[in-house]
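To whoever is on call:

I kicked off a structure prediction for a single chain this morning and the downstream step that reads the tokens threw a length-mismatch warning. I double-checked the sequence; it's 134 residues and nothing unusual in it as far as I can see. Pasting both halves so you can look.
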Amino acid sequence: MKKGGFTLVELIAVIIILGILAAVGIPQYRRAMERARGAEAYAGLANIQEAEKIYYTTNQTYLTTATPMTAAQQQSLDIALPQSGWNFGVASTDTSRNFTGTATRSAGPCATNTVTINEIGTITDAWKTCVDAL
């Protein structure tokens, strides 16, 4: 009489295959999730750049703040920035000519890495280098 079910060898083979798939899939998933979170930084920095241009047109100077930007500072630029894992700020050495907007990752595997944008839209991305290394 033949019994139904799986042999021990078949079960071990399935477990090994699942382990291999997990070993490949989990790091790819983490990297994809971190890249998706990076979209918040790019969007926030684009908002800062556009708001700074408008602020400059009105005041002939760029707004300079510390990181992280407070709600009042965001209000003076008339923007709302995402607050889930990024700290945004604006710095300027010469407020009449240039500024640098900064997004610093506050959590996750690439915490403390930054993405910056300047007044002409040049992006410097130490955060992406970290994500690519995951």
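Update from on-call: the warning came from a stale cache, not from the record. Cleared it. Sanity check on the structure: The beta strands are 86-91, 100-105, 114-118, 123-125.
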